[in-house]
């Protein structure tokens, strides 16, 4: 399983707020709930799942601003693909929290 941090930036919006685009992106993400886990953060979205599925999800999410009339989109993606053991978002957080005790 891999973990992806994704930020989708619509360029050329009418104003500085992008929350409407984020909401539309999350509606698309909800259609993948049976195949990935995800968490919205103030600055990005974290998604975990099998890498081929994550690439499919990334493409679908990247298309959302275009479907809303935006002519340019910048998408930043970071992939954590650990293959020596299974990792999850919660497992990574638990590991750090244990070390903080």
From TrEMBL:
Q: Which organism is it from?
A: Anaerobacillus arseniciselenatis
Listed PANTHER family: UPF0045 PROTEIN ECM15
What's the protein name? Thiamine-binding protein domain-containing protein
InterPro entries, per the entry: MTH1187/YkoF-like, Thiamine_BP, UPF0045_domain
Domain Thiamine-binding protein stretches:
4-97
What family is it from? Belongs to the UPF0045 family.
Name any GO cellular component annotation: cytosol
Q: Where is the signal peptide?
A: none
């Amino acid at each position: 399983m891999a973990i992806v941090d994704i930020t989708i930036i619509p360029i050329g919006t009418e104003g500085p707020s992008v929350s409407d685009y984020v909401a539309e992106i999350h509606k698309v993400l909800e259609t993948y709930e049976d195949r990935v886990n995800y968490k919205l953060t103030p600055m990005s979205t974290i998604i975990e799942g099998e890498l081929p599925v994550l690439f499919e999800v990334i493409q679908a999410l990247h298309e959302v601003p275009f479907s809303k009339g935006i002519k340019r989109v910048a998408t930043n993606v970071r992939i954590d693909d650990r293959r020596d053991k299974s990792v999850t978002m919660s497992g990574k957080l638990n590991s750090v929290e244990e070390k903080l005790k």
